[in-house]
Hints:
5 domains, flat, 24 helices, single chain, Rossmann fold, seven-stranded mixed beta sheet, alpha/beta, D-amino Acid Aminotransferase, Chain A, domain 1, 20% strand
Amino acid sequence: MSEIEQRNTRIKSTRMSEIRQILAMVRKDGRTRLTEQEAKKVLACAGVGITREELATTADKAVALSKKMGYPVVLKVASPDILHKTEAGGVKVGLSSAAAVRRAYGEILESARKHDRKARIDGVLVQEMVSGGIETILGVSNRPPFGPVVAFGLGGVFVELMKDVTFRLAPVDEAGAAGMLSEIKGAAMLGGYRGGPAVDKAGLAKTVASLSRLAVELNDEIEELDINPLVLTKKRIVALDALITLKPEGSKRRPRRTPVNDIRAVLEPRSIAVIGASTDPTKTGHVLLKNIVVNGFPGKVYAINPTAKEILGVKAYPNILAVPDDIDMVFFLLPGKWVPTLFEDCKKKGVKAAVIISAGFAEVGEEGRKVQEALQEVIRESGVRCLGPNSIGFINMSHKLMGSFILFENWSDGPISLAAQSGIFAGAVADELMSKSVQRIGIGQSVIFGNKIDLDESDFVEWAWKNPNSKVIAIHMEAMNDPRRFLSLANKVKRDKPIIVLKPGRTAAGATASASHTGSLAADETLVDSSLRQYGVTRAYDLEEFVEFMKAFSYQPFPRGKRVGIVTFSGANGVLASDELAEHGFEMAEFSPASRARMKKFLPEWQPAKNPLDLWASLGAGNRLTHEEGILSVLSDKNVDAVLVVLLALANADFDGMREIYARARKEFPDKPVYTVILGGPIKGRWIKEIDGLSMPVFDTTRIAVKALAAAWHYVQHKDDVQPDPILPAAGA
C-alpha cells in the first residue's frame, strides 16, 4: 500500500490515542459495552458527526444544561447496564421548558430503576433535539469469517420490513461508500424525493468511509458498532444514538500458519504413489492409476497394493515405505479410517503432498467431522500439503497428469483453470463439456477440493495466476475458508485474469445441502454477494451461467465500452435483446453515417438503417450478402463496442459460406466481441459446426448471451479497481 493510501485509510494517531484511552477505561471498569456518551466520543474522534450533549447528575444541572443548549431538548438515561433505553422508559423527547426537563429527569430515573434495580445509573444525558431529516442506520459488526463488515440502510420501517440494507467489507473508501448509497432500494430519498430534503451525499459517503476506517483500526477491539439513527438533513449528518460492544479479551485474529510446501507439491509432482491401487478394472483405484498411465504422465508412478506384483504395467509395492525411491505425492483411495495411520508412513517417507480421494469425513456428520479435525492436525504438523478429503482428484494438462478416478479419453486442453468443491465438475459436467462436438471449452486444469482440509480456493487462485497457460480462472465453492484472504488475493489477480465464481447455497435449504455434501458451512449469502461484487469478482448464479461465462471469457475479447449493435433476422428477438441489454446497463449504439450508408445498399428503400438492424426483409438482396454485409457493417462501426447477432437458421435464409463470414469478422476486427444466438432446426447445427474453431461463442437465447456480455463488461469496469486489505499482512498471505 502506498503512503497516500495509508494516510487515507488511517485515523490520525492523536485521535486514535483518545479512542484507545476510552476503550481501556471501559475494560478497566469490567465492561464490554460503552455508554452512549462514550460511544459518541469514539465516533467524534473518527470523524462522525454527533449531537451536542452533556451529562447531568441532578435535575438542576439538567435544567441549566438545557437552557445553555437551547430548547427543545432530549433526555436519556446514562447507564452502562441499560442497553435499550426506550424500553426502560429512559428517553424523553421534545422537552421545551425547565419544568418539563425537571419532571422528565425524575421520571427517567424512576423508570430506569424499576426496569433494572441493579443497574448502575451515572445520571441523565441532556442532548440537543434534532428535527426533520432522513433517518438511516450505519454500523459495523464483526462477522466471522469475514471480519469487520460495514452496513448502511434507511431506518425505521425500511430496515424492519424491507430489509433495505447494503453491506461492504471494511475498509471502504469514499467511492465505495458512494456505491453503497446508490444500492439501497430507497436511494431516491437521499436525492430529495417528492420535495424531501436532498442530503449531502458526499458528506455521507465520507462518514461511511470514516466508520469503516475505525473498524479496521480497531479490528481486534470492536465486536459491534451501531448508529441508529444517523439523521441526514440538508446541512448536517449526525448520530443521535450509538452503541459499541467490544470483543472479549484474548480474541485477536490468529495469524495463518505458513505452510512448508505450496500447492505445486500437489499439482506439479515428479513422482506419484497410488495407495489403494487395484487390479479390478471397476474399482476407483484401478481407474485412477489407468488415467495417470495412459495419459502419459512423464514422472515415476508406483502402485501400492499388499498382494499385487504389478498393475497396468506399474510395479506394485505392499506399502509406501517399501518403495526404494523418493515420492513427491500420494493418492489415498482406501477407506477414510485408514488415512490418519497411513499418513505416518508418508511423513517417514518424506512425502510432500497428498490427494485424499477417500470419503467418510465431515460430510457424513459429527463423527466424521471429529476424524477430519484429527487428520487436519496431523497434516498441519507434518507440513504435507493436501487436497481433499472427499475429492475425485485433479487434472493438470500442462504436466500430462490426469489424476482423477473419472476416466476421460477425449479431454480438451485450453486456457481455463477450473476448481470446485464438488466432483460433479470434473465428472458429469466435464464429461458433458468434453463430449461436445462443437462449442467446446478447453480446460487446462481441473481441481476438486472436496472438504478443503488444507488447500482451498485461495491457494488455487494464486497458483493459477502464476500459470502462463491459464487465461480464465473459474471456481465453484460451497463455502469460503477465509473470505478475507480469498477476496484480497482475487482482487489483485483479476487485473491479469478474470475470476468467475459459482457460489450455491443462497437459501437455507441450499446451505443445509452444502453442509451434508462437502461438510461446508455456507456463509451469509448477502455478505457473499456484496463482497464478490465489492472486490470485482464475476459471480455466476447457476450452472448455465458458469459454463457460458467461461466460454465467453475464453473465446472472445472483452468489450471496450457499453454501446452494443444488434444484428437480427427477427424483429421480435431484436426487441427482446434491446430490453435485456437495457436491463444490464448497456446502450443501443447510434450507427455512424458511414455505416448507415453501407446498410442502405442492401436494405429495402422503406427500411431505416437503425439499431437493432432487422435484416429479414433484406434477404431479397441475397442471403449471403445480407448476412455478411449486415454483420460487418455493424461490426465495423466506430460507435459500436460489441455486436449481438441473432440468426434464424431457416431454409429460406440458408446459404453456403457462414464460416467465411465469421472468419472475416474475426480477422478484420479481432478486438471487438461478437456474441451470436442461432434459432432453428437442422440448419442451425450445420451453421454452428461451420463457425466452430473460430472462437466465436454461440448461445441458445438472447438472455444468456446478454448475461455473458454483461459479465464481461462488468469485469472490464472493475479489473483495475484494486483495494489493499490492511487487515491482512499482504494479499495472499
